[in-house]
Amino acid sequence: MSLDTQTPQADTYYLALTARDARFDGCFFIGVTSTGIYCRPVCKVRTPKRENCRFYTHAAQAESAGFRPCLRCRPELAPYSLTWSTQDASTILAQQAARLLDESQGWGEAAPSVQKLAQKLGVTDRHVRRIFEAQFGVTPMQYLQTRRLLTAKQLLADTNLPITQIALISGYASVRRFNAAFAQHYKLNPTQLRRDGANQTSGDGTLVRLGYRPPYDVHAMLAFLKTRRINDVEFVANTADDLRVGRTLRLEANGNIASGWIMSSFDPVQHQVLLRVSDSLRSVLPAVISKLRAALDLDANPQTINAVLHDSFPNDDGLRVPGTMDGYELAVRAVLGQQITVAAARTLAQRIVDKFGEPIETPYPEMTRLFPAPAVLAQAEGDALGQLGIVKQRQAAIVGIARAVAEKRIALHSGVDVPATIEALKELPGIGDWTAQYIAMRALRWPDAFPAGDIALHKALNVKEEKNPTRAAEAASQIWKPWRSYAVIRAWNGLSATKKEPS
After folding, report:
1. Which of 198, 239, 294, 354 is the most exposed place for a label (fewest CB within 10 A)?
2. Average pLDDT score, the chain
3. Is the pLDDT score of 500 beyond 50?
4. Catalytic entry in 25, 27, 39, 158
């Protein structure tokens, strides 16, 4: 399903193509009929003739139409296209279906299927297919196939992982099926996509590239993360010539638990993040990439968001919502940040890591410990947390979260049912609406989360003196739907450095 080349929208797309406008990267793709290739709008090859261009809003549509991905601009590097609506229920459902397909952790060891997708969404198979094809122009399985192939293509181009391993971690049950999919869709053998740069030495880890759309206020993102940095677990550099963020990481994917480190560096000129991953995390590399994209909010579309928020926050068009590499860790830190300053919450988190964190070897002296695993804090009863200065109510909340995650009663990632997860969190001891909304904003990646009871938010919105500031904040936020998470970040950004806000 391509866009008619004679529509005003097609005119806009072609102008963006001729200008190599990075703001449109990932928002659409161009299939060139004279070559059979599809490209990103930032591709640096000679601009094709207008009559040879076909425009698609998703890579899966271009591949379904028979186009192969460009080996120069590499469509797999483009930020994903995430759109939201609070008006159209079918659109919301289709987007949630896509989120579930994108989030590998949500499936465990089970292979995704339309039947299982429909079951997760609580609708029929037929309805899922209908609304998905209406939204994306392809079936759910075609969408998933494109995601898998582009993931594999990136790993083939950027890493020296064995093809057998790439096939398995990209979601294929066998190398035979992997080779057949490549031959059918790309008319190439996987080995033909290997690049010279893929033959890296393994001592410094594996390097992959991730794209994002400008504007992106990198310094603001790194400042937010640096203020909350836990020593020995995280590293942040935020200077003119050094824009890096790294951390140790424990990750469960495809039934495996892997531990290691990551270090990412922003390249604002190319609108890319260079991600280096330790060899110990290579078996879960697609999950690491997906989580970093979410943690740094690389898939946000500033044009769509700013169309709603710019009038209220005219100086903050480049701000993103900081996410997390570990939803469980973020939930624990959210509990620690209840009604205290960022600095105080960071101190408590540091004490937990110092006492319960597991040592790990990395090439970076700033990163030497892992955040405690859920099973560890689930057993931290008695006065084990109290000795660290954590009050009893928060002790119970931390243990409750750790147990719920360890026992897999709650999952904290972007592929979950957000309303159901918020309610499940609020049933745990010591978890109220503020904490649940904060977790939804940063761990579940819900763009419309709104911690209406936040004291700093009341101050930023000038409702602190209202009789019911929470209700006043909720009322004021209605004009920012469905991007209230971004409005919260922009409101906090306007406060002084001594403000109180979540950790």
Report:
1. 239
2. 89
3. no
4. 39
Is residue 454 part of the annotated active site? The answer reads: yes
- Per-residue three-class SS string for 181-203: HHHHHHCCCHHHHCCHHHCCCHH
Residue that the structure tokens 């186009």 belong to = 67
481: helix, coil or strand? coil
What is residue 233's predicted lDDT score, i.e. its pLDDT?
A: 98
CB–CB of 36/53 below 8 Å? no
Reading the block at residue 222, the tokens are 């790194």
Contact between 310 and 317 (Cβ < 8 Å): yes
Distance (Å, rounded) from C-alpha 381 to C-alpha 406?
A: 15
pLDDT at 502 over 60: no
Residue 469 has pLDDT above 60, yes or no: yes
Q: Is 373 exposed, middle or buried (0-12, 13-18, 19+ CB in 10 A)?
A: buried
Cα–Cα distance between 106 and 119 in angstroms, integer? 13
Is position 39 annotated as part of the catalytic site? yes
- Which residues, including other chains, have CB under 8 Å from residue 147's CB and lie 6 or more apart? 60, 101, 102
pLDDT computed for residue 184 by the predictor: 86
Model pLDDT, residue 355: 96
Would you state the pLDDT for residue 498? 42
pLDDT for the residue 118: 81
d(CA 439, CA 412): 8
Instruction: Extract the tokens encoding 211.
Output: 């794209």
Q: Distance of alpha carbon 450 from its chain centroid, rounded?
A: 18
Beta bridge partners of 38: 31, 69
Q: Say which amino acid occupies 5.
A: T
Respond yes or no on whether the N-terminal peptide bond of residue 482 is cis (omega within 30° of 0): yes
pLDDT at residue 87, as a whole number: 47
Segment 290-328, tens digit of pLDDT:
999 999 999 999 999 999 999 999 999 999 999 999 999
Active-site residue among 102, 232, 326, 454? 454
Find the farthest-apart pair of alpha carbons in the chain and give their distance in angstroms, rounded. Answer: 72
Give the span between the Cα atoms of 30 and 61, in whole angstroms. 10
Average of per-residue pLDDT across 481-502: 79
Cα distance between residue 369 and residue 282, in whole Å: 19
- At 364, the amino acid letter reads Y
For the record, the structure tokens of 450 come out as 């709104």
Task: Please state the pTM of the whole predicted model.
Answer: 0.87
State in Å, rounded, how far the first CA of the chain is from the last one: 45
